[in-house]
């Protein structure tokens, strides 16, 4: 009888204990112990879930980095790509994306912020933001970095094969020469290309003057006989296989092409180059927002950020990562342009309603 009485008393406590153990294992994965110790994630709504939907440019995030994040956080990353800021905006604007994190260029961050398409980022969860150089923080497109965190930055350069090109190349204007007929690869990006044509007229890359935009359209139509392909993904391929003698390319593409063929040189255009800061953003109503913040913080670790630049050598705003990146990359002008060249460069701005004029001009250029 005593034993049965003991069982009646103990079993309810055992049952309660089992329920507590089971419940404590639910609700998603918490951040690593180092983050828990700093008090980052205690509430249930701050749990890291088992999935992350990442939307990014192609050739912009190494598989190795994704795999390390998946392993450490026990998260499955679903990776989708786009070729332009406009494509990214269109898909997110459609409202059916389900993306948790994307990468947008400075002016696009401003547009999406104004249109209410972004979730504010809890910077308390981005402990590695301290690694970002101050010059890339608190910019006018997102004061206080409420909606964005810098990822990479860079510009649009000229790359050309000196063994194939006989004339001197010092600026964008030289690409209109007859020597380049049907032999250029240029960026498939209306803001960059029309901006470059604006710059050639001595105007702002973000000019809203209809006359300037129309003149830029005509300039780019005049360039069409020289353009072999519009490509914002892998411009280096055509430079390396000989289909293109020269091009307007991203900095990493210029560096990679030169690495494989030293005859391909980089020119910092005398007119002043396009410059852009690409930032992590969290789309409105992202289903896994806390996981997105964990991914941002993970990428901002110096060793992870350096690994990305070693694979895709864009300019890196993570100053703590610089000493981990090879000198060959850090000293290349397409990766780290001289300060005097940066001062001539220009970042794009939100065009407001004038974006419709750019849309029309671009459609007429590519029709």
Automatic annotation (TrEMBL):
It is found in: Periplasm. GO terms for molecular function: polyamine binding. Keywords: Periplasm, Signal, Transport. Spermidine binds at residues 59, 107. It comes from the Bacteria. CDD domains: PBP2_PotD_PotF_like. Pfam families: SBP_bac_8. GO terms for biological process: polyamine transport. InterPro entries: SBP, Sperm_putr-bd. GO terms for cellular component: periplasmic space. The keyword Signal applies. This is Spermidine/putrescine ABC transporter substrate-binding protein.
């Amino acid at each position: 009888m005593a034993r049965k009485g003991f069982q009646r008393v103990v079993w309810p406590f055992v049952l309660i204990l089992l329920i507590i153990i089971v419940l404590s294992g639910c609700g998603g994965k918490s951040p690593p112990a180092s983050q828990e110790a700093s008090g980052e994630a205690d509430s249930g709504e701050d749990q890291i879930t088992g999935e992350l939907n990442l939307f990014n440019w192609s050739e912009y995030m190494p598989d190795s980095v994704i795999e390390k994040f998946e392993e450490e956080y026990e998260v499955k990353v679903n990776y989708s790509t786009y070729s332009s800021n406009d494509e990214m905006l269109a898909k997110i604007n459609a409202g059916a994306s389900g993306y948790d994190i994307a990468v947008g260029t400075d002016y696009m961050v401003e547009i999406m912020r104004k249109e209410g398409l972004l979730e504010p980022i809890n910077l308390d969860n981005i402990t590695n933001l301290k690694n970002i150089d101050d010059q890339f923080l608190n910019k006018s497109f997102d004061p206080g970095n409420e909606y964005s965190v810098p990822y990479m930055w860079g510009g649009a350069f000229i790359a050309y094969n000196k063994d194939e090109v006989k004339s001197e190349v010092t600026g964008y204007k030289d690409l209109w020469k007859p020597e380049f007929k049907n032999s250029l690869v240029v960026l498939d990006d209306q803001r960059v290309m029309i901006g470059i044509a604006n710059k050639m007229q001595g105007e702002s890359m973000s000019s809203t003057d209809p006359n300037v935009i129309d003149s830029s359209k005509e300039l780019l139509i005049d360039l069409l006989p020289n353009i072999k392909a519009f490509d914002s993904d892998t411009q280096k391929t055509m430079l390396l296989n000989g289909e293109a003698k020269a091009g307007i390319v991203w900095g990493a593409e210029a560096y990679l092409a030169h690495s494989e063929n030293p005859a391909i040189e980089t020119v910092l255009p005398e007119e002043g180059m396009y410059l852009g800061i690409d930032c992590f953003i969290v789309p409105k109503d992202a289903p896994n927002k806390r996981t997105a913040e964990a991914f941002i913080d993970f990428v901002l670790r110096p060793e992870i950020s350096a690994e990305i630049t070693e694979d895709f050598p864009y300019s890196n705003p993570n100053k703590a990562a610089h000493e981990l990146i090879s000198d060959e990359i850090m000293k290349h002008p397409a990766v780290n342009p001289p300060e005097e060249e940066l001062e001539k460069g220009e970042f794009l701005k939100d065009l407001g309603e004038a974006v419709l004029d750019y849309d029309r001009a671009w459609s007429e250029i590519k029709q």
